[in-house]
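Archive transcription. Copying these from loose printouts into the bound notebook so they stop getting lost. Printout 1 of 2:
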Amino acid sequence: MIEGGQRAEPAAAQLTPRQIEILRLIVRGVSTREIARGLGLSVKTVDAHRAQIMDRLKLRDVPSLVLYALRKGLVSEED
């Protein structure tokens, strides 16, 4: 809970469907270039999505992002 008795927004609700899709690919170890090619995006767009995901979740590096996603159930180890 946060101040004022309001509940914190679940992490998944902070991310767009595209960001969750990219997060799942990152967790699987897919490279930025492969993500871009597979989704028909530019590498810069994938980088921007990853940066936005990390900013929204207040994380600083990709290993922290992967660990957070697994711990919070945003993705499963099978994703």
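Printout 2 of 2:
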Amino acid sequence: MAKGVAVKKKKWVSILAPAVFDFQELGESHVAAPEDLVGRNVSVSLMTLTGEPQRQSIHVKFKIVGMKDGKAATELVGLRMLASSAKKLVRRRRSKIADSFIVSLKDGTFVRIKPLVTTRGTVTSALLSDLRKRMRAYIAQYANKLDKDEFVRLVVQKKFQGGLARTLKKVHPMGPCDIREFLFVSKEQAKGKLRILPPKAPEKPSEPAEAVEKETAAAQA
């Protein structure tokens, strides 16, 4: 090594989750210049943050946005369920609705949501179309009442999904209803990518629940 060349010593830098996850440590990185971490992504299992083993198939992605008190600060990028786990939600003699669209939150944040809901028993295409409309309306309306942290907290606690399931059960018995992925996007990224759903109230049933059940039973016969 040439004389007079200074060699920076590497050190371990803690990477912290944002406030919505109580600034928990996501891990450490061994670097010479901590500021070089800015812009990098970190992905961890949701089980790491909640301590719940059943959440290990859900991965949460963060982006390092700066340094504070010698530690790396992050912001949440999104959440994704492993494909193998999503497949387990859909079993035989069930119909599913998988969708992808963008909604706006109360604080002006845009989020791309990919819900996955299933019915008990197979249903007709007309009923699936009705359920899809209700699902989209519920998600767009509910999300518009929440800021970013509130949205994340309710999805992680499954309260957001629970409300969706209760809404759809008014029309037809439902199986698992979940969010297989969400991703925060900028307004520029959202523009022209996917339709941004407006926060509107769910439409009234296109037909009585009794008629829907009879139609479904006939389709299964």
